[in-house]
Amino acid sequence: MTTEELAATRKTGAALVDDLAEQIRNRIMTGEIPIGAQLRQAELASNFGVSRTPVREALRQLQTSGLIEVLPNKGAVVSVPAPWDVREAYEVRAELEALAAARAVRRITRGQIDQLRAANQEMYDLSVAGRGDGVPAQHDHRRSNDVFHTLIASISGNARLSKAINDINETFPRNVSAQLIVNDSRHRDENFQEHERILEALADGDAQRAADQMREHVIKAGEQLARWYELRSSTVFRG
Amino acid sequence: MTTEELAATRKTGAALVDDLAEQIRNRIMTGEIPIGAQLRQAELASNFGVSRTPVREALRQLQTSGLIEVLPNKGAVVSVPAPWDVREAYEVRAELEALAAARAVRRITRGQIDQLRAANQEMYDLSVAGRGDGVPAQHDHRRSNDVFHTLIASISGNARLSKAINDINETFPRNVSAQLIVNDSRHRDENFQEHERILEALADGDAQRAADQMREHVIKAGEQLARWYELRSSTVFRG
DNA sequence: GAAAGTAACATTGGATCCAATGAGAGGGGG
DNA sequence: CCCCCTCTCATTGGATCCAATGTTACTTTC
């Protein structure tokens, strides 16, 4: 299908705009729209079968969340994350997820621990099975990883905390980090074991350890992502 | 002057929309536009001397940041904060500001400590002088308070952290907390002394204590704000 | 042949238009 | 007397319009 108007079964108002923003965000997150790419209003409008008006409102939302940058009279481009900015953001995210893990200790149930363990195992299996399979494997992997992290955040019982973590996550396309973990067995194993350590701390009811393990894990993930963007920018300058 | 078009000297594009969003946000933050109030596009448009188009984009930005809610075909209203939501948000803010304080310890200079001390003293003096003077005193007080907190955040050296803290702050109108502190001498004194304790920890280079004091201070402020909203909602239901 | 100017084209951006939905008043029926 | 229906008005929301700005390719000149 050339357009996705079928999916947007005649929504209207805030619903339509939010939906547009969500779909554009997804395309950026998955890398379908690459970093630095121009977002032309007319093109997006025809893609989604609407006029430019709601598209522009959706772009404003994405601008506010920092995923795109809007230059006066030049339009919107997907933000290219600076490595230092990634490190800063992940330091914040690490602290927030550490808080979430600490809080989750007091509220987590046996069933939820099993759920988390299953998500982690699934993520590992997907990584092993999908080596080199490219985009779909990365996509599935990212989903399981998101399940793991968002589940802990939601168990924390603080909706604002979940939202704050999510807001940071939505700032950077993360298909790249999935790529790393899927294709590099060392990263994959480390990632799996870090999750397991967090799980153990949660199961033990050790809030301090859960927080520390989570903080360390997220910082490490951020470092990998920052490195990837460093590599990428130097490649771009060469190529 | 009836309109503020003078201030908006023919801006255009993202600059105009951002400016509109900023001005509307200010009016909400100061209470000039009260909580729960309807925001009519046509009214705002004529107030600012523009058409409804950029106003709608500005409203989308405010919607994304959570300050207003947009209901389909019914327009935008200023969000009325639920007390539990305020507590949750301030728990997050407390953690972020604690991190900022801890990080600031390693970077703060003697001059900056003096600056902070001056801001705190000014805030106290303004509170004493402005008792009962109403809106202007509250406004000045809130500004000095903001200086104190944003300065520490900026000293932390993590721009994302500053932004995350700011994003949470911009979610709730805070004229009310200023009102509390200006008019209640006990709150005023406690606020002053909490700031002093944070300053001492910063001056001593004690990251742990700075973080703990800051966390406690912000949680307490959040509790006050939440209480205020509780009181308000029960009053509204009676009146 | 290169650089600068210019003219056509593409794109953004605010204003305006009209359809659609919602709110409220007035009137008719139970 | 109260309830409900309908008609009208206010407001939102997407589409369209036109001016303004930016970009690119072509031409002209040195």
From TrEMBL, chains A, B:
Q: Which InterPro entries match?
A: GntR_C (IPR011711), TF_FadR/GntR_C (IPR008920), Tscrpt_reg_HTH_GntR (IPR000524), WH-like_DNA-bd_sf (IPR036388), WH_DNA-bd_sf (IPR036390)
* Keyword Zinc carried by entry: no
Q: Which UniProt keywords apply?
A: DNA-binding, Transcription, Transcription regulation
Question: Superkingdom of the source?
Answer: Bacteria
Keyword Lipid metabolism annotated: no
Which segments constitute the HTH gntR-type domain? 14-81
Example of a GO MF term: DNA binding
Gene3D superfamilies from the xrefs? GntR ligand-binding domain-like, Winged helix-like DNA-binding domain superfamily/Winged helix DNA-binding domain
- State a single Pfam family of this protein: FCD
This chain belongs to the protein called Transcriptional regulator, GntR family
